[in-house]
Amino acid sequence: MAPKIFLTGGTGYIGGSVLDALVKQHPEYNITVLLRSVPDNFISKYPSVKIVRGDFDNTALVADTAAEADIVIHNGNSKHEPSIKAHIDGLLRNSTPSSPRFLIRLGGTGAIADWADPSFYGEKNPKVWNDVQDIEELTSLPDTALHRNIEKIVQKAAVDHGDRLKCAIICSCGVYGPGKGPGRTQSQLVPVFYDEIINNTKRAFYTQSGGNTRSWVHIDDLVAVYMKLIEAAAAGGGKADWGLQGYYFTASQEVSLLDFATAVGRILKNHGIIETEEPAQLPLDDIWKMRLATKWRYMGIYAFACNTRTVSERARKILGYQPRAPNLFACLEEDVLAAAGRRA
Ligand SMILES: NC(=O)c1ccc[n+]([C@@H]2O[C@H](COP(=O)([O-])OP(=O)(O)OC[C@H]3O[C@@H](n4cnc5c(N)ncnc54)[C@H](OP(=O)(O)O)[C@@H]3O)[C@@H](O)[C@H]2O)c1
Can you give the pTM of this predicted structure? Predict the structure, then answer.
């Protein structure tokens, strides 16, 4: 029987792209989405998708809808605790060892970012996290790690109910490329860098040597990881790892901030948006003053001075994941122009 899927974040960049792929690749799936507002084109684009109107804070609704699903795919605000608990409560209602339910949750490599360690601000940290070799460390990160609150909830559920609740965390790195969903189609990091240049520095920028390095993945490759996991869940678990081992990085490449800034500076200069192509080397103090409106004092450091280096071994080994999309530099001009409001 076709699986019943409950997806959140369907108007978002990542969740929307997953929804679009699911509808196109698996028209037989029975899909329900949680939306707090319905985009104009949604019903005509996805006539077979059932809409439940609500917010993550409406936990009774989230739990009741999850209870009807075989597979929950939870995207959206990755730090929201009540909604993940509600999904788990709902999924546990009807699950049995002979008919387990599945929870696939979007996380982020903020979990392993070295923002708390000043020794590598603006410099390359030699530590590269591997989702197979480092799994014990990854499943016991300190409580101060980003996303840890949610990962602990998911991992506890996986340990307590692993016979009937199969959990996986897709721990995505920075994503690029145009999204395919009905709502947001831009990722986060390129617009944030663009915004800082236009409203503050007037030049692309880096700090220290600019060696701090981030892993990246194209949205189409990230969606490919999702699809493989969802298809495994639909087959009763398939060859995928679930539970504590169900932790998947998605990276296809890594790029230093200096290389990123150099490329962005060139694109902006070529399009007449800034005057100087060469990125500016800023003092760390300037980076500390960035993104303070987010209310997290490390946000500038996190966005522009720290490292998130990951290797996606598990998805390659277990799911046969092979990133195929063009690399970041091949897509950067389109993403920068989208951030500048010059892409349709
Ligand atoms: N993009 C990246 O590079 C990246 C990489 C790794 C991890 N992440 C993390 O993954 C998550 C999703 O990323 P994204 O780029 O897809 O973000 P996004 O485009 O902003 O999408 C967020 C989605 O979540 C929904 N949402 C948020 N709060 C909600 C609530 N309280 N109730 C119901 N729906 C809610 C939004 O609905 P509305 O349309 O109604 O607002 C939207 O559909 C974020 O937490 C992000 O930090 C992103």
Answer: 0.97
